[in-house]
Amino acid sequence: MNAPNKSGWKPQMEVADATGEAVTNTGNRALMLEEPLLFEIGHAETTGVDLPEIDPAAPSRLGGLKREEPIGLVGLTEPETVRHYTRLSRQNYGIDLGFFPLGSCTMKHNPRLNEKMARLPGFADVHPLQPVSTVQGALEVMNELAHWLLDLTGMNAVAMSPKAGAHGELCGILSIRAALEARGDAREVVLVPESAHGTNPATAAFANYRVENIPATPQGRVDLEALKARLGPDVAAVMITNPNTCGLFEPDLREISDAVHEAGGFVYCDGANFNAIVGRVRPGDLGVDAMHINLHKTFSTPHGGGGPGSGPVVLSEALAPFMPLPYTARTKDGVVHLIEEEQADDFAREHFGGEMSSFGRMTAFHGQMGMFTRALTYMLSHGADGLKQVAEDAVLNANYILRSLEDLLHAPYADSGPCMHEALFGDKDFGNGLSTLDLAKGMIDEGFHPMTVYFPLVVHGAMLVEPTETESKASIDQFITAFRSLAERAIAGDESLKQAPYFAPRRRLDETAAARKPKLKWEAPEA
Amino acid sequence: MRYLPLTDTDRGEMLAKIGAKSIDDLFVDVPEVARLDGPIRDLPMHASEMAVERHMKRLAGKSTVAGDVPFFLGAGAYRHHVPASVDTVIQRGEFLTAYTPYQPEIAQGTLQMLFEFQTQVANLYGCAVANASLYDGSTACWEAVAMATRVTKKNRAVLSGALHPHYSEVVKTMAKFTGDAIADSAPAIQAEPDNAGLISRIDDETACVVVQYPDILGRITDLAPIAEAAHEKGALLVVVNTEPVALGAIKSPGEMGADIVVGEGQSIGVGLQFGGPYLGLFAVRDPKHVRQMPGRLCGETVDAEGKRGFVLTLSTREQHIRREKATSNICTNSGLCALAFSVHMTLLGEKGLRELAAENHRLACLAADRLVKVPGVSLLNNSFFNEFTIMLDGKPAREVVRALADRGVLGGVSLGRLYPGVERLQQALLVAVTETTTQDDIETLATQLEALIKEDAQ
């Protein structure tokens, strides 16, 4: 009974014996160290900085509102602080540690040169409201980055201020809304494919549009005829992701754009998957009117455990006059200008031959400068030739994974032709009530970060695998072998997967209990 | 290319496995019209690390570095000393190159940090619950207005005239599209904010009142009467704070009755960075409002073996579950900036934060006292923390700021920059002073200001 099966996996009891029973005095296991909460080890009187003691007799002009009660903060000295966070960091998986094929998220290597450049004082230690003459270097970075984005997308203008992908979507949709309203056209509907990222319908709803779904064909693409039939004077925009979230290129996008334009609407393209086509296809050639670019995906700025991102939006000529302020532009004399509200009209008249009708302001300052420097550093490193190779290797890696697993795993669109930068599988052949979640947790034990699970919603138990271009063939081969072993176990109904992971810092966490009685803040235990 | 591990041999083998003759076979779905025949023209080809570094350093050299000159800018972004260990921690690959913690078993580092961060923010603000961060203070301000609309089922927001004008603009921009009604005005130039005027604008249709604390002119006012007036009309009080260090010295908005407290966290751990990435903080005083909050929340739970662990929770509020019915469209937030904030706040602790606040206030008092000795300069504020407004008698402050920059002093933010066209504000200059300001810096500013004023008088 304890013999390893074909995949080399041993039954659960042995695993538990090997790892679950050993007891240490501290609860630690060699390099796997438990770490208490900050509030359990810190003290209100401890600090890791050396500042002057407070002089109680010092003058105070705080309007009589001195904070008298304890704040409820604790401190650690510097060595304790560094150790606390170093120990926490070791409970995290990151790209630096291993393969991170999280579909739709483009977890590629984050070059350290980017980090170094972003920390140059001429970028990092500059205030957003310094006189424009003293921030020319920062503005030039924005302008150079904008130039790259426009050339890579074949578009006409770029709004740099959006802070992340979803914020960029909002920027694009609000530009569309402003353009429509400027011509007195009150449209109410935004069409979104069923397979879209959740941010798409959320964005359209936030901009007060009614969201309607666009049906897909059995081949996983937008149903062109159904879409055409739905177009009309009430449709403001169509939001499309290309390559789409099933990992397929939408070959009809040009035709879709033409039809949408003919019906008086605009085409918004979700640029989350731009990594598949960067340097090979320009969305502007496909009739797109607006597209956000996740610099934290395609252009390798780090995800940081959930941001910060950056979502500049490229716009067509029709939408450019409506983009948010502030924006930057270089004039013929080579000087980069920061265009704020007061100069916008004059500048537009002088340099763009028209009035500015900006829809407003999206954020306090000019955008994610720290991400701009990183992205520009990355673009300059790759160059136009390297970026094209990025797309090609990303697509090659994904197709290699698709064709190495399709004989075993349900691959709903394997017959639809080559995939782009991600391969999509489903769990319909799994036995014994096992699901995608179980396989994903098994993958954790194998030392990989799981793929994206249960997205897109159109595939049962979806598993979306995005290898990116920064994995070696050896790394991908190891992943394929492990994935096949897990898939075999899942199809055979190996119930031990239901308890996976066994080797992570934590076993499965009770999310239901967390939501039922939310505990969102540390409270001192009652004495 | 140094970031691409595949060799041509690998590529050949992989194409063979796929059954494709060339890479172009994988792009067959791209229509003819959109196929490019080679690398995009007009863009440079790849470059070595050394060459890229040279280029970027040349650009960086074209800006004036705040730390190199006497520096007095604030207005929503403050220059503070960030301990070296903060950057060391945030550059650890396990934090830097992790994703949003959707797989909690291998993301306890990020999750525990977020739980600690939420606790720090909630306590700093005097609130019950804080979220795991938003983009920045201005977008957090809009999210607060949108949340107040959901909670009160009313859609009229009253903005204080002394709210940062860029924050007001963000709110007004978003409101144009969502059908919310916004009422605001530029601040009056007076020593105390016009609380009576603000209160008089609250009526039964009001969803929320939005007040900045300390306000855009640096003034500090008791929020309790505004909270009371808002609550009487069934409205929420939203308090915006752009300088979290201040809350080491002055009462928290929560203890004065604010319902939603939002702000910019950049001061702690993040740095100036020419405006971003920054850190949006968002908290609520009453835990019953938690299900209307935007953004991610980290909660405590146990794993299958009963060990304490943390997960993202209440995600049925969020776009990836609720789609068009979500409380916000936000996805990526400001995770790494939240880490920087949390590490810096841990280094400070309660003692360090209070000392830091006291030092900021001490130096600001010194600066205010010195600057009013310059002929033609007067202080507007009765109260302030580390930023105050001075009036330059008969001088447009915007031109003064530019002239000071030519003399190597970054002397503050002119209200003319923030409120172009508002005549009464053109002579006002906002001056911020932090622990990084030296007495020499203050003396230089005073001397240069005096020289400029004299020059003009002649």
Walk me through what this model shows.
Chain A has 527 residues and is of the alpha/beta class. Chain A has 2 domains: 77 residues, no CATH class; 318 residues, Aspartate Aminotransferase, domain 2 (3-Layer(aba) Sandwich), CATH 3.40.640.10. In chain A, 35% of the residues lie in helices and 9% in strands. Chain A has 15 helices and 12 strands. In chain A, the strands form 3 sheets. A 7-stranded mixed sheet of chain A has the order 1-7-6-5-4-2-3, sandwiched between helices. A 3-stranded antiparallel sheet of chain A has the order 10-12-11. In chain A, strands 8-9 form a two-stranded antiparallel sheet. In chain A, strand 4, helix 10 and strand 5 form a beta-alpha-beta unit. In chain A, helix 6 runs parallel beside helix 12. Chain A is globular and about 75 Å long. The N terminus of chain A is likely disordered. Chain B is α/β, with parallel strands linked by helices and 458 residues long. Chain B folds into 2 domains: 116 residues, Aspartate Aminotransferase, domain 1 (Alpha-Beta Complex), CATH 3.90.1150; 262 residues, Type I PLP-dependent aspartate aminotransferase-like (Major domain) (Aspartate Aminotransferase, domain 2, 3-Layer(aba) Sandwich). Chain B is 37% helix and 13% strand. Chain B contains 14 helices and 13 strands. Chain B has a 7-stranded mixed sheet with strand order 1-7-6-5-4-2-3. Chain B has a 4-stranded antiparallel sheet with strand order 10-11-13-12. In chain B, strand 4, helix 9 and strand 5 form a beta-alpha-beta unit. In chain B, helix 3 packs antiparallel against helix 11, helix 5 runs parallel beside helix 11 and helix 11 crosses helix 14. Chain B is globular, with a radius of gyration of 25 Å.
